[in-house]
Write a structure and sequence with these properties.
With 952 residues, the protein is an alpha/beta fold. It has four domains: 3-168, Ribonuclease H-like superfamily/Ribonuclease H (Nucleotidyltransferase, domain 5, 2-Layer Sandwich), CATH 3.30.420; 243-343 and 686-724, no CATH class; 485-671, no CATH class; 731-949, P-loop containing nucleotide triphosphate hydrolases (Rossmann fold). Helices cover 49% and strands 14% of the residues. The protein contains 36 helices and 25 strands. Strand 1 (3-10) and strand 2 (19-27) form a beta hairpin. 3'-5' exonuclease. Belongs to the helicase family. DinG subfamily. Type 2 sub-subfamily. It comes from Paenibacillus agri.
Length: 952
């Protein structure tokens, strides 16, 4: 098999565009690269500046280049009897066929393969399949990205990496891959068929320590064999070791391991505060700014406390990201520096783990919705099973339809066969649960923490000591979990999985099995299934009508009220239901009755099936259907709870987006005040809870958090410690905060022409001085869009690119990666960029805050909280809006200085920080940067001067 790896640079997209450069790398049968061919091509039109910016190819480069037909005379002989390969090959193939046609050659008839498919299958955990990033991941020197010969060579080297990986996989895995693609007549199928035949001829197969079970090759063995970290009968390693001796030993080991390690005052204080709280059964609020090293700050005391007292310590984070960072970065370090064996386990929500039974069933039955895409996702997973120890979906880069596919193979309670499952000892979820059971410290997330409380503490191992990281999110998460939140899609999706049409869905699948069995009971059950269909259709139609009618209640939109583009919001109040609500309630009643009928008949039938043995082929279907009927029960109760609108302590509201109309409808019912529930569920029940975050205090006081989280009583009883750690950074030298005092102000979420023009001009000037490397935070998506185009235009001549959240497409992490990789760019972000974004070093030099991050006061939850405060004769603006905004402002400010070497500038364009009576709370809450205000025109010279001072 000889490969020709092709890459074109062109002036535009597939339909219109000319080739300006070609690159071709030939890979011989022995997998050596025998030749790299490259040539510029003269196009019939000038090269657009955008393409020159991307590729570095200018009009002068191609002025004397060969014409298309000259180049093709050289290229065509190289394509004889080869397999054509490209990175996203459809693009290059289209241009090739066009060029062959224009120059009078026959079309290319050979096989075509795409390196993106190979990368997905061979390396399912890569975070991106972009050529530059993949090359650097494999250590391939890719000197001139977006130049055809360099791209072709890099792609050829990437292909060779993939082939090498395929040859190291066990034969069983190759057989499964070959089966997956055999069903469709594709070039990928042809390749895997050939690979399988070649591998079957070999006498020696690669040695591996994999487990082979039921035709799958797995990295994991039986979890029942996992041992606890220490011998149960041995002496406790901390029996006579005080905390300070333990820490001395660890500091010494840290110094040996990390030459740059030095004790930090703030971190040392944190070690002591946390161990005091844990060992004396107190609660602790501790604010630890960036650079404190707070993960170690709570993990080291948690390990000591847990091992010494032989009681688990639970650690909860807000984001899965932080959970993964602890697993990949902090725990491996601790394993090396803690002077005795201990175990820290990660335990996520059940839906993050793969259910091997469902996956086996899906690939054996080829139960695919879109055959080509699903086959590639299944192939990724088959290879991933030979690499993964956790079976956690965060390790996979599924993209596209991957999310839908995952839902059908994820572990869940209702469809779990438990010990009866043939996969039980290999099960990833039970492995994680068992690991959490034997661990000293268990790391979970806020969502799972609340799911556990709602499930009567059935999900997590028992614990008395809890550390909550990113604790400023606790109240929000509590509201979501202690209330209800349901999407239109959840209902239609569940109904669709039960019954899409007479051929698709779990019920039709069961009916097919019953028909082949021929027993009398089977035909009775088939009749029951047939009778369920009309009821299910009634439920679906009623739900669609109800959603449509609820959607029409939403107000027509005049301005961008809540959050992002096209978002509609309506609060429903128990006391004043909208007119015609009876009509909606009648629809809900119809839906409720039909659902009850379906659930009653369905569950009765399933329990009869369970009693009768020998239904083996239907077993897993019966289990999955049981789960779906339980989901229907939950839907029935939730819709009723929402439509009753009768709890005055709950805020009810609807959300939808104008793009997808009633299909995007979401119902929310959230308790107005969760402090009483948090107190009752956590602070009264647990011995000690440590809450930490970079932003817990407002104007150096913790009162806002104490009130909102229900810690008032603990404070009165002397059970609450608070600690504001000093910052490890020298903010006066590292950060300059500038406020242009004559800047125009803004009303609402949209700026007038004068405001936008002044802002664009000022941002452009600042961006030139800081050479891009600037993050601009907006509070409204509409204002971001107002600024995006004019700013892009203003900076185009300076070679500074502008990236806009929601304008560019792509996820937050992709945008951040693009920002970090480009040498000069300005990134515009809204709400989600205010926190959790970590861009250390030179990539970020300037942070611009356009408006103070007040939440829209008309959001239903904010409104209801304000009403509650007013009823208590408190000022909602000072008690709620300002503290919330200060915390977000501090989060935003925290993006700038990430290490002791970082220097940077913050520009606050909102003059309220110096004009209003509450502005001081914002400025006083910051960790002491140098602050100056001046006229707008003096700002850029001052920034230039300050940056130069730092360069000395």
């Amino acid at each position: 098999m000889k490969f020709a790896v092709l890459d074109f640079e062109t002036t535009g997209t597939q339909s219109v565009g000319e080739i300006i450069q070609v690159g071709l790398a030939i890979i011989e049968e022995d997998r050596s690269i025998s030749r790299v061919y490259g040539s510029f091509v003269k196009p019939g039109a000038p090269i657009p500046p955008f393409i020159t910016g991307l590729t570095g190819i200018t009009d002068s480069d191609v002025a004397d280049a060969p014409e298309l037909d000259e180049m093709m005379m050289e290229l065509v002989p190289l394509l004889d009897d080869v397999v054509l390969v490209g990175h996203n090959v459809a693009f290059d193939f289209h241009f090739l066929q066009n060029a062959l046609d224009r120059c009078g050659y026959l079309p290319f008839q050979g096989r075509i393969l795409d390196t993106i498919d190979f990368l997905k299958i061979c390396f399912p955990s890569l975070t991106t399949y972009q050529l530059g990033a993949v090359s650097s991941h494999f250590g391939i020197t890719h000197e001139r990205p977006h130049q055809a010969d360099s791209d072709a060579l890099a792609t050829a080297l990437v292909l060779l990496q993939c082939l090498e990986e395929l040859y190291s996989l066990p034969l069983l895995t190759i057989q499964r891959l070959s089966e997956l693609f055999a069903a469709e007549d594709s070039d990928l199928g042809w390749y895997f068929d050939g690979l399988l035949r070649e591998r079957e001829m070999e006498t020696f197969q690669p040695e591996s320590d994999l487990t082979f079970y039921r035709q799958l090759a797995l990295k994991v063995g039986d979890w029942t064999e996992l041992e606890p970290p220490r011998d149960q009968h041995g002496a406790n390693p901390l029996h006579s070791l005080s905390f300070s001796d333990y820490m001395d030993e660890i500091r010494q080991r840290l110094k040996d391991k990390l030459p740059h390690y030095e004790s930090r005052e703030a971190q040392d204080i944190m070690f002591n505060e946390v161990i005091t709280a844990l060992s004396e059964d107190k609660h602790l609020l501790i604010e630890a700014g960036t650079g404190t090293g707070k993960s170690l700050g709570y993990l080291l005391p948690a390990i000591y406390q847990s091992v010494r007292s032989e009681q688990k310590v639970m650690v909860s984070t807000h984001t899965i990201n932080l959970q993964d960072q602890l697993r990949e970065r902090d725990i491996p370090l601790l394993t090396e520096v803690v002077p005795f064996p201990f175990k820290a386990a990660i335990f996520k929500g059940r839906g993050h783990y793969l259910c091997l039974r469902k996956f086996e069933h899906k690939i054996n039955k080829r139960d695919f919705t879109s055959p080509r895409e699903d086959a590639i996702i299944a192939a990724q997973m088959i290879v991933w099973l030979t690499q993964s120890e956790s079976g956690d979906d965060e390790e996979l880069n599924l993209g596209g339809r991957g999310g839908d596919f995952w839902e059908t193979v994820a572990s869940d309670t209702d469809s779990c066969l438990g010990r009866a499952c043939p996969w039980f000892r290999k099960c990833y979820y039970h492995r994680a649960k068992h690991e959490a059971g034997i661990a000293d410290v268990v790391i979970t997330n806020h969502s799972k923490l609340f799911a556990d409380v709602k499930a009567g503490h059935q999900l997590l191992p028992a614990y008395e000591h809890l550390v909550i990281d990113e604790a400023h999110h606790l109240e929000d998460v509590a509201g979501k979990h202690l209330g209800m939140h349901m999407k239109h899609f959840t209902v239609s999706h569940t109904l669709g999985r039960l019954y899409k049409d007479s051929r698709n869905g779990q019920l039709p699948a069961l009916r097919q099995i019953l028909q082949t069995s021929g027993s009398e009971q089977a035909s009775e059950w088939s009749v029951i299934i047939d009778r369920l269909y009309p009821d299910l259709l009634t439920v679906k139609e009623t739900w669609d009508v109800l959603s449509e009618k609820l959607y029409t209640l939403l107000p027509e939109r005049s301005d961008a009220a809540a959050g992002e583009a096209g978002q509609l919001v309506l609060r429903l109040q128990p006391g004043s239901k909208p007119k015609d609500w009876e009509e909606l309630a009648a629809l809900e009643n119809t839906m409720h009755l039909s659902l009850s009928e379906v659930i009653r008949k369905g569950e009765k039938m399933l329990s009869e099936m369970r009693e009768q043995d020998g239904q083996s082929s239907a077993d897993s279907l019966v289990t999955d259907l049981g789960g779906l009927f339980k989901d229907l029960g939950a839907i029935r109760e939730q819709v009723r709870f929402f439509m009753n609108l009768n709890d005055v302590n709950v805020v009810y509201w609807l959300e939808a987006s104008t793009n997808y109309r009633s299909k995007s409808l979401q119902l929310y019912a959230v308790p107005v005040d969760v402090s009483a529930q948090l107190k009752e569920l956590f602070f009264d029940k647990k011995n000690s809870i440590v809450l930490t975050s970079a932003t817990l205090s407002v104007d150096k006081s913790f009162q806002f958090m104490i009130d909102n989280l229900g810690l008032g009583e603990a404070a009165e009883q002397g059970r609450l410690m608070t600690s504001l750690l000093p910052s490890p950074f020298k903010y006066r030298e590292q950060a300059l905060l500038v406020i242009p005092r004559d800047f125009p102000s803004v009303k609402g979420s949209i700026g007038d022409a004068r405001f936008v023009d002044t802002l664009v001009q000022s941002l452009a000037e600042a961006a030139v001085i800081t050479r891009g490397r600037m993050l601009v935070l907006f509070t409204s998506y509409r204002m971001l869009r107002q600024v995006y185009d004019p700013l892009k235009e203003a900076l185009a001549s300076q070679d500074i690119s502008v990236l806009g959240q929601g304008v560019e497409g792509g996820s937050r992490s992709k945008l951040i990666r693009r920002f970090q990789d480009s040498n000069a760019s300005v990134l515009l972000g809204t709400s989600s960029f205010w926190e959790g974004v970590d861009i250390p070093g030179d990539a970020l030099t300037c942070l611009a805050i356009v408006r103070l991050p007040f939440q829209p006061p008309n959001h239903p939850l904010a409104e209801a909280k304000a009403e509650l405060l007013q009823a208590q004769k408190k000022n909602p603006f000072m008690k709620l809006s300002v503290p919330q905004a200060v915390i977000r402002f501090k989060q935003g400010f925290g993006r700038l200085v990430r290490t002791a070497q970082d220097r940077g500038i913050v520009i606050v364009y909102d003059t309220r920080v110096i004009e209003s009576y509450y502005g001081k709370y914002f400025l006083y809450s910051l960790p002491g940067p140098k602050m100056e205000h001046m006229k707008t025109e003096q700002m850029v010279p001052r920034i230039a001067e300050w940056l130069e001072e730092g360069g000395k």
